[in-house]
Design a protein that fits this description.
By secondary structure, the protein is α+β, with helices and mostly antiparallel strands. It has a single domain, classed as q2cbj1_9rhob like domain (Jelly Rolls), CATH 2.60.120. 20% of the residues lie in helices and 29% in strands. It contains four helices and 14 strands. Strands 1, 2, 3, 4, 5, 6, 7, 8, 9, 10, 11, 12, 13 and 14 form a 14-stranded antiparallel sheet that branches. A hairpin with a 3-residue loop joins strand 2 and strand 3.
Length: 238
């Protein structure tokens, strides 16, 4: 069975975007369109679990912080989605991430802690925050986020754009629309503030994404912080 991505294209993407990734502002990141093979992305979107599906949804309802749904219960996921997650936790994909980011010895997370799939309905949002930095079960430092958007026919009026903020969480640096089959890769630091604070508006369309995180057993001294959970810097309207 083939991967949900083109292996040779990943190698080209790593070479094409590596330098830009490492120097990007406000922290290392890259946005790549048409990331998964077209047929795979379409199959994932068509079978993506909906709110009434029994996939072990966790419900997050803290207004001004996060209002969304998420699940890491891969055993309940449709086959196309489960394959995609396994493929992106494979050695082939990890080597792509290492080449792209310059971060060696990356580890995938088979437990999908905090990741897996995310779904935002009308009124949902995610306040500006920096992610937890330590995986207790893996005993490893969180280093990378990979987000892949799988809502077909995204429209600007919907809201829900990913926002990257400066390291003080005081100013918006970049807004990224959650266009179908778009991937965002960024370094997970204690000051890599991001979120999608603008409410998702359509009542009949859900904001759907795959979220995968990668770790290392060590990290540079200048990035070291005491283990912490999600750090919110308030809710930012823009």
């Amino acid at each position: 069975m083939s991967y949900v991505f083109d292996v040779e294209r990943l190698q080209r993407l790593a070479a094409q975007h590596g330098a830009g990734y490492r120097t990007a502002s406000p922290y290392p990141h890259v946005v790549i369109d048409d990331f998964l093979e077209a047929d795979a992305a379409a199959s994932i979107a068509a079978s993506f679990p909906q709110p009434a599906d029994d996939v072990g949804w966790d419900y997050y309802g803290a207004e001004h912080f996060e209002v969304k749904m998420g699940s890491s219960r891969e055993e309940r996921f449709p086959a196309h989605l489960r394959q995609a997650i396994h493929d992106m936790n494979s050695g082939v994909f990890v080597r792509f991430l290492e080449a792209l980011t310059g971060i060696d010895h990356l580890l995938p997370d088979p437990h999908l802690v905090g990741g897996g799939i995310h779904l935002t309905r009308a009124g949902g949002h995610l306040g500006i925050h920096a992610d937890f930095n330590w995986h207790e079960r893996l005993q490893a430092h969180r280093r990378l986020n990979v987000l892949i958007y799988v809502t077909p026919d995204w429209q600007e009026a919907y809201g829900g754009e990913l926002e990257l903020w400066d390291k003080g969480a005081k100013a918006l640096a970049r807004r990224v629309e959650p266009v179908f089959n778009r991937a965002v890769v960024f370094s997970t630091l204690s000051d890599s503030f991001h979120g999608h604070p603008r409410h998702w508006t359509p009542v009949d369309v859900n904001r759907q994404s795959i979220a995968l995180y990668y770790y290392t057993t060590a990290r540079p001294a200048e990035e070291m912080r005491e283990p912490h959970n999600t750090l919110y810097k308030g809710y930012h309207f823009t």
